[in-house]
Amino acid sequence: MELIVHAFISLDGVMQGPAGAEEDSRNTFERGGWLVPHSDAGQLSPVEGWMAKADAILLGRTTFEVMRRYWQQVTDPHNLVATVLNRGRKYVVSNTLSDSDAAWGNTTVLRGDIIEQVRRVKEQPGGELQVHGSWQLARALHDAGLVDTYRLLQVPVFVGEGKRLFADGGIPATYRITESQTLNKGAGALSLVLRQAQFGTIGTGEFVVREGQEAIA
């Protein structure tokens, strides 16, 4: 399967607690809810399209518990996100959750060497293994070279603090944008595919002046 990381991020790269003030208050974070003003009817339609492609969902423990608490309450059969999450195949990364504690439809707990566990899941037949949120897990998978694609919904707000998807210290990599869309209130939906030959590196160059003209060296 192809591993896809999905994230809602702000202009300054924050991905923590976007959907409610009390959703994620770890590390005294108090600025949750920044996505909501940009979520009028149709504003998150790209996310539904992304979710429709999921063969399995992979989550870190905290994101799993937050999503389970919310989405188990959504019983509308026409809500595609709820259908995928409540009925679809899910994996949660945790060395402390028991199978009974992780009960949410078809859910499997991944324990031990998480990178190796995820490699095995990726080797299974299927289309997309989707990670949603799950900051620490997403960073670990990136640094292990397991992320094939990022799908990002970037919201035009500057949060100023919080967990960042692309923080200092990560492994450099080069991607190409395969899809982009600007939504009505200014949020941008992007799909970025890894250039496999350029994991661990980024291209560089310089601008120079030759015979009075600017050129790229």
Descriptive notes:
This protein is α/β, with parallel strands linked by helices and 217 residues long. It has one domain (2-216): 3-Layer(aba) Sandwich (Dihydrofolate Reductase, subunit A), CATH 3.40.430.10. Helix content is 20%, strand content 31%. The protein has an 8-stranded mixed sheet with strand order 4-3-2-5-1-6-8-7, sandwiched between helices. The chain is globular. It starts with a strand and ends with a strand.
Nutshell version of this structure?
This protein has a single domain (2-216), classed as Dihydrofolate Reductase, subunit A (3-Layer(aba) Sandwich), CATH 3.40.430.10.
Low-confidence stretches: none
Our Rg estimate from Cα atoms comes to 19 Å
| End-to-end gap | 39 Å
What gross morphology would you assign? globular
Strand order of the largest sheet: 4-3-2-5-1-6-8-7
How many structurally independent domains?
1
Order of H and E elements: EHEHHEEHEHEEEEE
Helical percent range? Answer: 10-25%
Mean pLDDT: 91
What is the name of the CATH topology? Dihydrofolate Reductase, subunit A
Main beta-sheet strand count, sense and barrel state: 8 strands, mixed
What is the CATH C-level name? Answer: Alpha Beta
| Structure classification | alpha/beta
Oligomer: single chain
SSE arrangement:
Blueprint: E1 2-10, H1 45-51, E2 54-60, H2 61-71, H3 80-87, E3 89-93, E4 106-110, H4 114-122, E5 128-132, H5 135-143, E6 149-155, E7 173-182, E8 188-199, E9 207-210, E10 213-216
Parallel strand pairs: 1-5, 1-6, 2-3, 2-5, 3-4
Antiparallel strand pairs: 6-8, 7-8, 9-10
